[in-house]
Amino acid sequence: MDRKHSKLLEMSEDIYAEPDMTKKVKFNRGEMKERIVDIYVSADTLRDGETSTKREETADTAPNNGPGDQHSDRNVSKNSSAERDQLETKYNNLTKEKDQLQASYNNLTQKRDQLQTRYNNLTNERDQLQTEKAFLKMRLTNLKRTCPEGWQKFESSWYFLSTETKKTKTWKESREDCLERGADLVIINSDKEQTFLFNLNKRLWIGLTDSDIEGTWKWVDGTPLITGYWYYPQPDNAVPTQNEDCVEIRNDQLPLKAWNDLSCDSQLNWICEKAF
Ligand SMILES: [Ca+2]
Ligand SMILES: [Ca+2]
Ligand SMILES: [Ca+2]
User: Fold this and answer.
1) Where are the domains of the chain?
2) pLDDT in tens, 50-87
3) Ligand 2 centroid distance, CA of 13 (Å)
4) What is the DSSP annotation of the chain?
5) Ligand nearest to the CA of 192
6) Nearest-ligand number for the alpha carbon of 171
7) Residue 209 C-alpha to ligand 2 middle, in angstroms?
8) Cα(236) to centroid of ligand 2, in Å?
9) Could you tell me which residue, 66 or 180, shows the higher pLDDT?
10) What number does CATH give the domain 151-275?
């Protein structure tokens, strides 16, 4: 037997031999038939000096994805089932994650709202404090500027009251004292101011006189008297001088009926006013 026939016999034996499972699973029946046909073809072609080994090799390595490959279908089905399980797991995980994120988001939203409220409150508080600070600063400035010792504030004026009864002065001397203090004898502009002065509870010179024209009362700043707080029957320009041209507030009358005209040479306490 020459080499070519020996090879052919070997191949025939291969075909009728016990099936090699690892090899067989790669072929369908159609392919097996093709291989057998190939072998007889090979016997013819041997004369042309062609071996079938090449063809066998080709068949061996051919792709096995032809139609009707049941084994491949099972694999696909198996694969898609595993893939579905994986996807389902993934979906469940993502759903869980989404829920956690939603909860987290809700918490953060709540926190943000709380912070917003707090921020608004703090802003309001800050604005109030700023207003308060500005007000206090203004007050302090006023105090520094216009509050020397012995002065007191009422409404929008500062007042200096002469308190020592032994050091009383005439109306003219009293006015000079006020001018030296950068002020003047008080000018009474309202019932409130009148009441405040009455409550100081002293006989005091005020900045009103009719020394220029008898009976025509003028304040020290030159403005005419509009509202007076005389008690009856003042002003009377009365005895003993018959020349009462200066005005005092008395402490033995009513708050809004407390003025009397008397001689400017009388000695009294006095009150200066500095408006701001
Ligand atoms: Ca006044
Ligand atoms: Ca008079
Ligand atoms: Ca009088």
Assistant:
1) 3-64, 76-146, 151-275
2) 444 444 444 444 445 445 555 666 777 888 899 999 99
3) 162
4) --HHHHHHHHHHHHHHSPP-HHHHTT--HHHHHHHHHHHHHHHHHGGGT--SHHHHHHHHHS----TT-HHHHHHHHHHHHHHHHHHHHHHHHHHHHHHHHHHHHHHHHHHHHHHHHHHHHHHHHHHHHHHHHHHHHHHHHHHHHH--TTEEEETTEEEEE---GGG-B-HHHHHHHHHHTT-EE----SHHHHHHHHTT-S-EEEEEE-SSSTT--EETTSPBP-S--BPTT-----TTTT---EEEEEEEEETTEEEEEE-TTS-BEEEEEEE-
5) 1
6) 2
7) 8
8) 8
9) 180
10) 3.10.100.10
- Average pLDDT of the residues of the chain: 82
243 C-alpha to ligand 2 centroid (Å): 5
- Say how many Å lie between the CA of residue 178 and the centre of ligand 1: 14
Q: How far is the CA of 241 from the centre of ligand 1 (A)?
A: 29
